[in-house]
Amino acid sequence: MTDFSGTTGLIFNEPLLWEKGRKGRTGMSLPRRDVGTYALDESLCGDGPDFPDLSEPEVARHYVRLSQWNFGVDSGLYPLGSCTMKYNPKLNEKMASLQGFTGAHPLLPAELSQGALRLMFELERLLAEITGMDAVSLQPAAGAHGELAGMLIIHAYHKSNGAARSKIIVPDTAHGTNPASAALCGYKPVAVKSNEQGVLSPEAVAEIMDSETAGIMITNPNTLGLFERSIREIAEIVHKKGGLVYGDGANMNAVMGIVRMGDIGVDVQHLNLHKTFSTPHGGGGPGAGPVCVKKNLEKFLPVPRIIENHGAYSLSYDSAESIGKIHAFYGNFGVMIKAYGYILSMGAESLKKASQLAVLNANYIKAKLKDVFHLAYDQPCMHECVFSDKLQKQNGVTTLDIAKRLIDYGFHPPTVYFPLVVSGSIMIEPTETESKEDIDQFVEACKAVVAEAKENPELLHAAPTRTKVRRLDETNATRHPCLTG
Amino acid sequence: MRFLPHTDEDIASMLQTIGLAGLDDLFAVIPGPCRFQGKLNLPEPMTEWELREHMTRLSDSMAASRGYKVFMGAGSYEHHIPETVTYLTGRSEFSTAYTPYQPELSQGTLQAIYEYQTLVARLLGMEVANASLYDGASALAEALLMAIRITRRKKVAISRLINPLYRQVVRTYLEPTGYEIIEFGYDTHGLTDLSTLDAHNDLAAIAVQSPNFLGVVEPLESIARKTHEKKALAVVAFTEPLAYGILKSPGKLGADIACGEGQSLGIPQWFGGPGLGMFATRMSHVRNMPGRLVGQAVDAGGKRGFVLTLATREQHIRREKATSNICTNHSLCALASAVYMASLGGSGIRSLARLNYDKCEYLKAELKKIGCKIPFAAPTFNEFVVEYPAGAKTLYADLLKKNIVAGLPLAAHFPELEGHYLLCVTETKTKDDMDALVKGVRQ
Amino acid sequence: MKKMSEFRLPDDVRYSEDHEWARLEGDAIRVGISDYAQDQLGDITFVGMPNVGDAFSQKQEFGTVESTKAVSELFMPIGGKVLEVNEALEESPGLVNEDPYGRGWLILVKPDNPDEFNSLMTKGDYAKRLKGAE
User: Is A378 helix (H, G, I), strand (E, B) or coil?
Assistant: First the structure.
């Protein structure tokens, strides 16, 4: 394995925060006390929280050591399907930390907030252009939050037509957030199966679409990495019965400048700025999940809206049919700055190129690995491809074992066991920011792991061995949850 | 383009492997009518240096606190943030990782979030805290939905002294499912008025905020007692958790769910987001909790480690029956607040909270001296309501010209409080800053 | 996972389509899940139980079983009122894996219509059904 990036190094142990420190230390420079002490009703006072007292060097070392047990995109290839782990430009981090942005109070009069309002207004327009939609709200804080906003908009639309509907169609390849978001609006999700080519057939949708159904939630490209070719026909079927088409934009990275959902029948779409538009995932957020709509749904968007008038920007709450607010303020502005910076750095040509290269990388991996792993659907894929452990199972080796062994080779594993329609699925999304050399290395690592699966499956069962911890006993952790120390 | 590594030779050789002639052929499966013809109408790409210049200009047009003295809180608070917080959360091993689905490669995030859950539980006096939600407003909405699930009742009560923006979000979340929301008003002390509670016997929860929107500390113990007499859950929201550095915690006073905004603890104001939705409850309710949880586990070699746990509550497993639709949360903000709480420590948070209290009391006293009315006499933390002398609107505008933001006008959300302003003082305001405000008001 | 021949299928119980078993004990029926079902689920981490006194009809959902990464509903093999629930499973849900027909039982039911018991599959029918599912 000497050629691969995975290797051993000195890994530090580090105790829990409260297992270190001494009472009386502090890690913060307390501001000067320039006022006296005032009376405070003692009956309101408590003992204060039982936090450990640590010095600044102890805090710094603690978190540096913890960080070294992590793997980020900056550490190596992170081919997590459906997650678009692309490179996060460093300049954007710096720009998001400019004092004018970090110190901005959200409730100041608009004339004192022009920079932020302009940035948000322009980002809305950029996203509208990229998606082919007419209006955008940046308020949702994450993809699932954007889905909720979208579902609330669909709900409000039907309500304003005087006919609330009770169901929504969700394909079997959907992310779990889709049915969960729909349920928050009281919709009962109705499953529709994808066909033997891994995509939706218009007939299957026509069969269940009725006047009680609010619409369809469709991820395109879908979670098998396949483009839903019949999207326009499906949209027509749904529209004819008075329904709306919701587009889950989690996989937008495949089609920037190539397909605009607003042009092909999608009425509402959310985007994940932390996927397609390169803002970092932060170990699970914060992200941002703008919701984009066609003109006829604009009046339902969350308030406030940002208005421009002769170069002056303001916030407007004047929208009687709006779904209301879904965030205390305007959404995750700190994340928007980074996505805005990304789009301005890229421009139209590079965004399209990014999608082309993302799809190129995925198809290249598919071609290189299709004799190594079982390919669930042998078709041209978009930005990700889905394999399974079917060939390895005869050696007593599962997807989980393969994933864990790849870690020892220095790669983050692909998404495993999703989508559910493929048993033992291995879902690989390389993104456009990985070079051919790195992808070749990854392919070689997969081949090496598969060879090991034949010759010495124990290596896989025992993996990973080069990490801070080995496989963890999740069963016992769930049976006897220990959630605080 | 510097983010895209492929050379023309790379592309040609990869296409050859796939068996295609050009990049366009990759998209042959997309029917023609679905293809976007033409070029996106976006601005010409900027160089790193042009973008830096452009962003700096936008940033400079903001009234951030360097030039301005902003005495405004109302859910977004200016506090000093130690450089360690920014530096450590900026480490890309933390910031460029995904949700910790592969625990062996994510022990840094997982231990940090386990520590965060513990610190939050200790701060709020609760038994268990989750790994974060989006913000205080959505945390409150989730808390009420959780209470509805637990009690199987369909009506919730919220205090009018909960941040009005949070109340709007709650309405948005509950509207489509038809759950009913009733509101309790407030009394002359600036406290939630529960005198009409007896009329209601079917409440899933009663939610109050403490310190409330007017800065006043609510009598949580008696509110929780009255709530429990109605077999409803006591939900305590907050926007300024630093208060619990000195005040009794919601858990100690009987809260069943404590939820709110953690921005105060080491997260920049950022024009309102990203913040940090804090959420804590009792262990008996843990299976009804929204959001991720990190738990302690043991690895194959007997070593301590951490994993995401009790995941069957979540959308990726339970789909439409999940306790919430949340997936991506605010992990990095949770990390920032953990580093902040660790830096302050138990001794530090008490001192800092007391300093905030005293500074706020100083301004209150100085304003009283010059004849301003303080309509609500009950104890406050960090924020209080002031009624400026006649001509308040002109006064406010004049002060704004002097780069002083003299609080938040309350009339927009509380029409009965015309001429009243919500002032906020934290440790970032010096005595000189406050004296300048008082001087401005006197003139 | 076990091979088909390794499943324990005792003949003193009857089986439902949803892989619950039912055992006649005097006037009452004891209910659990089959060896096949526990094997499919993997290590069980939690059992969501009804309350004593709850009444359900045949095939109605009465609870859930959870592993770390899956939730499955439990369905009544026979309609009736819950007389007892297995409280030991709260502390030790793994009993369902270790001893599905014994200490891993779920509930004891007073049937509304004892004839429903006869509609359930015998060991032989159930074994055939499992072979079909293979």
Answer: coil
User: How near does any CA of chain B get to the CA of C62, in Å?
Assistant: 15
Cis omega before residue B274 (within 30°)?
yes
Q: Which chains share 3+ C-beta pairs under 8 angstroms with C?
A: A, B
Q: Which of A315, A345, A375 is the last residue of a domain?
A: A345
The partner residue sitting opposite A329, judged by closest CB among B111, B272, B326, is B272
Q: Where in chain B is the domain with CATH 3.40.640.10?
A: 83-340
A69 to chain B: nearest residue by CA? Answer: B108
pLDDT of A414-443, one tens digit each?
999 999 899 999 999 999 999 999 999 999
Decide: pTM greater than 0.90: yes
Q: Which CATH class is domain B69-81+346-442?
A: alpha beta
Task: Sort out which chain B residues have CB atoms less than 8 A from A34's CB and list them.
Answer: 430-432
The SS3 of residue B216 is strand
ipTM of the complex: 0.97
C-contacting residues in B 283-302 (Cβ below 8 Å): 287
Two tokens, residue C15: 């089986």
* Cα–Cα distance for residue pair B133/B116, rounded to 1 Å: 13
Read off the pLDDT of residues B258-285 as tens digits, 9 standing for 90 and up. Answer: 999 999 999 999 999 999 999 999 999 9
User: Domain B83-340: which CATH class?
Assistant: alpha beta
For residue A140, whether the previous peptide bond is cis, meaning omega lies within 30 degrees of 0, is no
- Number of domains forming the structure of chain A: 2
Q: Is A41 helix (H, G, I), strand (E, B) or coil?
A: coil
**Which CATH number does the domain C10-113 belong to among 3.60.15.10, 2.40.50.100, 3.40.50.2000, 2.40.160.60?**
2.40.50.100
What are chain B's partners, defined as 3 or more CB pairs within 8 angstroms?
A: A, C
A472 vs B94, B103, B431: nearest CB: B103
